[in-house]
Amino acid sequence: MQAAPEKPTSSEASLQLVLFVDERPSSRKQIQQIHSYLAQLKAQYAFEIQVIEVGEQPYLAEHFKLIATPALIKIHPEPRQTLAGSDLVTQLKNWWPRWQLCVEEYQQNLPLPTEAPTTQTSKSAISSVAYSAELIQLSDEIFRLKKEKEELLAQLKFKDRVVAMLAHDLRSPLTAASLAVETIEITQNWSNGGGAPRLTPAQMEQLSKQARSQLRAMDRMITDILQASRGTSAELHIKPLKLDLGALCHEVLNSLKNRCQAKSQSLKTDIPNDLPYVYADEERVRQVIVNLLDNAIKYTPEGGKIQVSMLHRTTQKIQVSVDDTGPGIPVENQDRIFEDRYRLERDEAKDGYGIGLGLCQRIIRAHYGRIWVDSASDKGSSFHFTLPVYR
């Protein structure tokens, strides 16, 4: 008489559980109770269990969609079931007989070894948990790397535009300086050849002054671009995106209008509706606008005037100007006010024109823009800055 084929043993089709725990002091007593009760059950019935600390493997908690810990999950046999809450031991006592019955039914329904000799589904349930966690982690890593790639490509594209902007901006002062120098050379050669000089000494001095001025402008542009490329954007965590600068400015103005009204100051704007988008970090640019307007309100006397205007200066830049009717800034101090912690003597007892303008300069330079002031004592100040147009 032929022997009947053997059914799989209980170890090949065992009950498989995953226990999620955390390190909160308030959970320790409950977790100890769960461990103790599971140890009692294991002495009477064979099952597999994997204990996972949520903080060490958050991907698994996400995979199983856990909303509370500790939590006990029956992952095999199917269907999966999750027990969670403060009365976990009570729930387990209630469900344990049903889980045992589920295992028996599963074993009875398994195909015979001769029909499916390679089936080892039950053995893979626990290991598949770790596999799922790794898969989720890899998916998240791929997503993060894709985002980094997009950001780096955007930065490279931006840097290419910056080079084009710099070349464009340098062309005008370079041309002006070259023309001045060439005119001086032509006049000098004419004089050396015995001809009468075409330019008076005053005109020669004016041309020399013009050439020096244009060379200083080029030097300032190159200095700004070099300082911006030395990691300023990384230090400030600049994240430039497509930005509606006009809308941002109106938002800031609305938040400050009560302060203007309190001093009876008139606040006017000249912001074109067709202003193109800029490529900038919204929160950092907001800091600049708020700081400049804060200073304008602070230093403009009661009944004074403040104006914010924007100009599509070139195809590559937007210029923002904040004008006030305050005390103005002496010419000799107009570069130094952008230094960190530098203050005019008259302002030492006031807030403003300190760290704020230094930070503004770093933010604008990080965007490969420029910030400066036009002012004269007792005639108010006009602060200007530029930002690149979004392409």
UniProtKB/TrEMBL annotation:
Keywords from the named record: ATP-binding, Biological rhythms, Kinase, Nucleotide-binding, Phosphoprotein, Transferase, Two-component regulatory system
UniProt cross-references to CDD domains, sorted A to Z: HATPase, HisKA, KaiB_like
Domain Histidine kinase: 165-391
Listed SUPFAM superfamilies: ATPase domain of HSP90 chaperone/DNA topoisomerase II/histidine kinase, Homodimeric domain of signal transducing histidine kinase, Thioredoxin-like
Keyword presence, Kinase: yes
Sequence positions bearing Phosphohistidine: H168
Molecular function GO terms recorded: kinase activity
Signal peptide: none
Top EC class, one word: transferase
EC id: 2.7.13.3
Superkingdom as given in the UniProt entry: Bacteria
Catalysis performed (reactions): ATP + protein L-histidine = ADP + protein N-phospho-L-histidine
Coiled-coil stretches noted in the UniProt entry, renumbered to this chain: none
Subunit structure as annotated in this protein's UniProt entry: Homooligomerizes. Interacts with KaiC. Participates in the KaiABC clock complex, whose core is composed of a KaiC homohexamer, 6 KaiB and up to 6 KaiA dimers. SasA and KaiB(fs) compete to bind to KaiC.
PANTHER family hit by this protein: SENSOR HISTIDINE KINASE RCSC, TWO-COMPONENT HISTIDINE KINASE
Record's comment describing the protein's domains: The N-terminus interacts with KaiC, while the C-terminal histidine kinase domain autophosphorylates and is probably responsible for self-oligomerization. The N-terminal domain stimulates the C-terminus to autophosphorylate.
Function: Member of the two-component regulatory system SasA/RpaA involved in genome-wide circadian gene expression. One of several clock output pathways. Participates in the Kai clock protein complex, the main circadian regulator in cyanobacteria, via its interaction with KaiC. KaiC enhances the autophosphorylation activity of SasA, which then transfers its phosphate group to RpaA to activate it. In addition to its output function, recruits fold-shifted KaiB (KaiB(fs)) to KaiC to cooperatively form the KaiB(6):KaiC(6) complex (independent of SasA kinase activity).
Protein name: Adaptive-response sensory-kinase SasA
Lineage: Bacteria, Bacillati, Cyanobacteriota, Cyanophyceae, Coleofasciculales
